[in-house]
Amino acid sequence: MSDYRSVISSIALAATLFTGGICLSQAQAADIIDEWANVKMPSAPELKAVTIDPKTTVLLMLDFLQGNCGHRPTCLAEMPAMKKLLDAARGAGAMIIYSGFEKSTPSDVIKDIAPPANEPMIHSNADKFLNTDLDKMLKDKGIKTVIVVGTAANGGVLYTAGEAALRGYKVIVPVDGLSADDLYAVQFTVWNLVHATPTFVNGVTLTTSDMIKF
Amino acid sequence: MRAKCALVFGLMACVGFGVSSLHAASIIDEWANVKAPPPPELKAVTVDPKTTALLMLDFFKQPCNVERNPRCVQSLVAVKKLLDEARGAGMLVVYTVYPTASGKPTSKDVLPEVAPNGGEPFFVGFLNKYIGTELEKTLRDKGIQTVIAVGTFAHGAVLTTAGVSAELGFKVIVPVDGMSSPTLYAEQYTAWHLSNVPVVSSKTTLTTIDMMKF
Fold it and tell me: For the whole model, what pTM was predicted?
């Protein structure tokens, strides 16, 4: 009798759990604002050393402007590393392109890393392929690899690096070359660069400026 | 002499330490210290159906299935409600998918719960749905000034297409219960990005499907 009862109660319990499970799985998920405090941070992605061919590589120096980088201590702190990367790229003969916003001029770029007259500057908002000749400039030079540094990480770098990957370029992002007002935005940019691009498109390689060999 | 050496050595070590601490720590070093900002405010919004388009981004099996992305499947009930309301109000509804390793999906691959009605524009493209498609022309030809972006992944197609829409001058509405990612982290950042990043945030209203009026 007691066995019978326990079997019945087990079945009842199982049925309740099953029904509950179905209800739960069909329930609408709480939206992200409700879930805000429950968000778990993903683990940090791996950085890789890279060796690049300067003949087919461009270094994109995005929006390192006085009015932008100049007010952002995290950006200014990256200038010595950026100067070193720039010198190495120039020394190896790689193509270098600067960007700014609509009315920026080369003299608006942070002095230490300012462009000489022969290096072009393009003008756009976050996605530097939008409303510019960037794609044509790269194709005309046979560029296959794009190194992206700049500020803000979650503006110019995020959109331009993502767009470059989708357009078939190999993309290299040194994590010591991107900054934003908020570390949260830098973290997401780094995470998203390796997670948002479909896996069969040329991916994005994360590295540091010291780990790039020309 | 030995004391002098120790002093000199100590000074050098101090200087060395000073220099290395001045060098910017990369985001990978800072990863565990990153704190999420407070949640953005959701706002009620009234939509003009004549000048607004609903962008249904990537509601097909590849990115929207129970195993890989359950929050997408869970969003379908609310998205269907939005879709019915948009159609009922005579709004332009546009669908997208992206090419997969096994080929180009067609409009028949859109999940049946939210399938196109046969005459609605359908585009194939990666994250930025304006690239290589007639999306912008379709919107401009119809006099569209506002886009509502829903879909998956939040951190992929929604983040990118909403961001580029803003750059192109469209107003953007994103209901947080209409966008989904496999991880809350990615949804959280997307919600924050859309309501904090310059250019994008000035054009974007973050809301919920129930807070939208037609």
Answer: 0.82
